[in-house]
Amino acid sequence: EAQVTQNPRYLITVTGKKLTVTCSQNMNHEYMSWYRQDPGLGLRQIYYSMNVEVTDKGDVPEGYKVSRKEKRNFPLILESPSPNQTSLYFCASSLLAAKFMGYTFGSGTRLTVV
Amino acid sequence: LAKTTQPISMDSYEGQEVNITCSHNNIATNDYITWYQQFPSQGPRFIIQGYKTKVTNEVASLFIPADRKSSTLSLPRVSLSDTAVYYCLVENPGTYKYIFGTGTRLKVLA
């Protein structure tokens, strides 16, 4: 089944403890992206990747890192999480980087930083 | 910078047609406009996309005027299961950043 898989679905962590949220897609998509969703603020783009080893900042990149060493994987790294990063995170992928054809989204990761 | 605006919420009754408009000035001239549906605690789900004029699929229609400064999602004969938040998605011109609209919470009443 074609899908975007995020793990974990739920995570509670403490301030400052490094964490990684994994994202994997099995559709050979070029473009991958991370969004966070907060009440009243909608979905905001954190980082995106046009292809392997090509990443760039979205609108809210502060406090996050990403990597794209393989086409299928696009992990989101929080080196030192803070409570303001408590949010619902979505990974998404799209077939072509040069011609956007719409996203396939993962099921989301609900992160709580205490 | 692309900027998008949608009505915050709408109510409708079962069986009615619902039209949700997204205003999006300054979008990329050669990219699709895409609409998504989201249920609580789920990822957004693709509904429809279009470039210009009118596009129709099995669940919705999308109307885009020639100036592409807005788009209207049309849901024919809504049911209770269409209660969700609906988002438009456009590209910030000259970038590969994709911006979601503010979202419209649709409530379908029996």
Can you tell me about this structure?
- The complex is a heterodimer of chains A (114) and B (110).
- Chain A is built from no helices and eleven strands.
- Chain A has strands at residues 4-7, 10-13, 19-25, 31-38, 42-51, 54-57, 65-66, 76-78, 87-94, 104-105, 109-113.
- In chain B, the strands form two sheets. In chain B, strands 2, 4, 5, 9, 10 and 11 form a six-stranded mixed β-sheet that branches. In chain B, strands 1-3-8-7-6 form a five-stranded antiparallel β-sheet, with no helix packed on it.
- Chain B is globular.
- Chain B contains no helices and eleven strands.
- The relative contact order of chain B is 0.34.
- Chain B has 110 residues and is mostly beta strands.
- At the A-B interface, strand 4, strand 5, strand 9 and strand 10 of A face strand 5, strand 9 and strand 10 of B.
Write a short abstract of this structure:
By secondary structure, chain A is an all-beta fold.
Notable features of this structure?
heterodimer; A: 114 residues; mainly beta; seven-stranded mixed β-sheet; four-stranded antiparallel β-sheet; globular; B: 110 residues; six-stranded mixed β-sheet; five-stranded antiparallel β-sheet
The major sheet of chain B is characterized as: 6 strands, mixed
Portion of residues within helices of chain B: under 10%
Beta strands of chain B, count: 11
Instruction: List the quaternary state of the chains.
Output: heterodimer
Task: Name the poorly predicted regions of chain B.
Answer: none
**Which structural class fits the helix and strand makeup of chain A?**
mainly beta
Give the CA-CA distance, first to last residue of chain B.
40 Å
User: What's the total helix number of chain A?
Assistant: 0
Mean pLDDT of chain A: 94
Structural category of chain B: mainly beta
Strand content of chain A: over 45%
Low-confidence stretches of chain A: none
Order of helices and strands of chain B: EEEEEEEEEEE
| Largest interface, chains and sizes | A-B, 28 and 22 residues
Helix proportion of chain A:
under 10%
Mean residue pLDDT of chain B? 91
